[in-house]
Each structure stands twice: as C-alpha cells, then as structure tokens.
Amino acid sequence: MTLSGTCVIAGIGATAFGKHPGRSSVSLNVEAIRAALSDARVDKDRVDALFVKPPTSDFQMLYTVKVASALGIQPRMGGAWDQGGAANATLISIACMAIEAGQIDIAVVSFADNPRTGNAAVYARPRGDDSLYGWFGTLPGYAMIMQRHIGEFRTPPEAFGAIAMAARNHGVRNPKAQVRNPLNMDDYLAADPLVAPLRRDDCTLISDGGGAVVIMSAKKAAELGVDAPVPILGWGYGQTFYEVAYRRDMTSTMAQTSGATALKMAGLTPQDVDCVQIYDCFTIAALMTLEDYGFCQKGQAADFVKDGALMQDGALPFNTSGGLLSETGMPGMQLIHEGVRQMRGTSVNQVKGAGNVVISNQGGVMQTHSTLVLGQ
Predict the structure, then answer these.
(1) Which structural domain, as residue segments, surrounds residue 99?
(2) pLDDT tier for residue 133 given thresholds of 50, 70 and 90
(3) How many angstroms separate the CA atoms of 90 and 82, rounded?
(4) What's the CATH code of the domain at 346?
(5) Which among 72, 157, 217, 282 is least surrounded, fewest beta carbons within 10 Å?
(6) Could you read off the pLDDT of 42-70 as tens digits, one per residue?
(7) Which candidate, 363, 372, 315, places its Cα nearest to that of 162?
(8) Would you tell me how many other CB atoms lie within 10 Å of the CB of residue 360?
(9) Which Pfam families match (predicted)?
(10) Cα separation of 241 and 366, whole Å?
C-alpha cells in the first residue's frame, strides 16, 4: 500500500510579505486561509481539519482553536505542531494520513507570524547550555556549522554566494518578493560578516506574513472540480540533537533521512528531480541540504552550484520565487507554494518541462527536517 499521489494540494493562499504593523498572527492566518479556500473554490464550512504551525515570535496555547474561531469554523480535528520551520511540510503529510484513514475529508494547513513589526526578540534568545558562554541568537549556530564545513571541505565563499545569488535573482522577477534588488558575486563578497563567516546575504529575511494550503484526496478534488490539484507524491522526516556541539557530525543533517524517505515514497532518485525549493534560512543550510539530498557528494557542493546551475535554466533550478533569502523569511510555507506553482505551470520563473519538485522544510539550527515531493 502506498499513499503516493492519493492526496493533493487543492489551493494555496498568502498575505503580502514584509511589514504588517498592528496585525495579529491570527488575523494573518485568517487572511491566508481565506485566499487558499478561494483558490480551491471550497467553502470554509467544508473544512473539517485545521492544522497550524504556531507563531515563532508569540507561542500560544490552543492556538489552532483561536484561528478556527476567528475564521468561523468548527473542525472535527485540529492542532498545532512545533517542529520549527519543518512543521508546515510535516502537517501536510499528517493531513494526508488523516484523510486516507477516513477521519477527515478536507484539511487546511496554515502558518502566520509578525516578528518584523511585532516581537523579533525570539531570534535573539539564548540557545541551550552554551548560552552561558555567550551563544545567543540564531546566527552563531549556523556560523559554527558553516565554519566547520569550510574547514573540512575547503568550501570557498563563492559557493555560498552562488546560492544567495540564485535566490535573490529569482526574487527580482517575483513581484511579491520582499527583496527584489539583484545580487552579484562582487557585492556578496564585499559585505562584511555579521557573525563570521556569515555575510549579510547569507541570512534570511525577517518578515510578517501568512500562508495556507488546502489538502484533500485526489478523488474529492475530482468530485469538486478543483481546477489545478497538485499530487503529493512523497514525504519524509528527520531529527537530530538540540545542542549543535553534541552532534557527531556537524556537516551532515537529517535531510539525508528525510529526503531519501520522501524520494523513495515518490519512486524517484535525485537524478529524476526537475527543480527544488530548498529551505534557505542561511546559505549553509541550503548547501548542506543539496548535499544530503544526494544531488552531489558531501563536500562537492561548490563545484555543483557554480556556473549558474541553480538558476531557472540551470541543471537544478532552485528557489524560483526567491526563498527565505529574497521572497520572505516566513518559514517554509512559501517554498510549498512555489512548488505548487511550478507544478501548475504558473511560476514567474517557470521551469520548462518540470514534472516534479522536491521541497525541504527545516527547523531550529538544522535540528528538524521535513521533505515533500509534488508532481503533476
């Protein structure tokens, strides 16, 4: 028995990305959900499950109940899932399993937050026991991992610059992207480190915004006449230690397990993949995910990403709406949306002939990982 292709993403919706002063995360969720339901042409009263990634900057108890109440629905099933930035992809797979088990018919998965105009202090919080020695905020952990990768594999800065340039230059052509100014290698290399070796353009945006998807079975989508349902071909998960310093190998992630599981479920190999939407909170995260998914050997990403390989017309088109480095820092959902657009043929940077897309979501300092594979 396989669940590959039995469920689809029937609708997607999002708010604008950037600044939403005075808006609550609940109201942003509601706006995104309404847009997704409109895209799927589904009335909100037909939704019988609501799964929400809780807001990073303002974690709340019974958050899904608050969103459902604001939306004016009373779903049979619901809940919030705390897996950091990996949660959105995981929640989609949970919805699929609940649908196949006959527990629900139509599910909504959503996420919204307002750290840019609300409370960004969460990104500066102490990190584990090492906070006793001055480890505060998100950047130091990624900087340590990046430094280890450079030390082990002599990874040149141009490798990270190629990732930043691909994301940014795809974002230039996305009218909804938060940052749309182009980036070249000279500009990337000229920027001073924020936390060495992380430069400014290695780092994610901080954004207000929300996004949602509507999930149902392929059979239900046919019954309802959904215009452009996108089959969910595979998914997978992985998780490692909380403390970065405790990890046996700082240059590998559980993307290895997550990606291999999802590709096996979809019946694909890395060589079969047409395009990717990779969690690029930092360029080192994207680079290591490309390696761990098997697109290149460990330590060889520098050769893999050079010469425009990640651009729209390259060997492996990457983050074609701009990702976290250009479109929005909203963790994970925007990558799923762009995967859907690629399969629908509606991306502003449409990859010619793309018949599948691999999407990664990641949480914490590379602690959790979730993978989705979508098809046509």
Answers:
(1) 7-116+207-230
(2) low
(3) 10
(4) 3.40.47.10
(5) 72
(6) 999 999 999 999 998 888 899 999 999 99
(7) 315
(8) 29
(9) Thiolase_C_1 (PF22691)
(10) 9
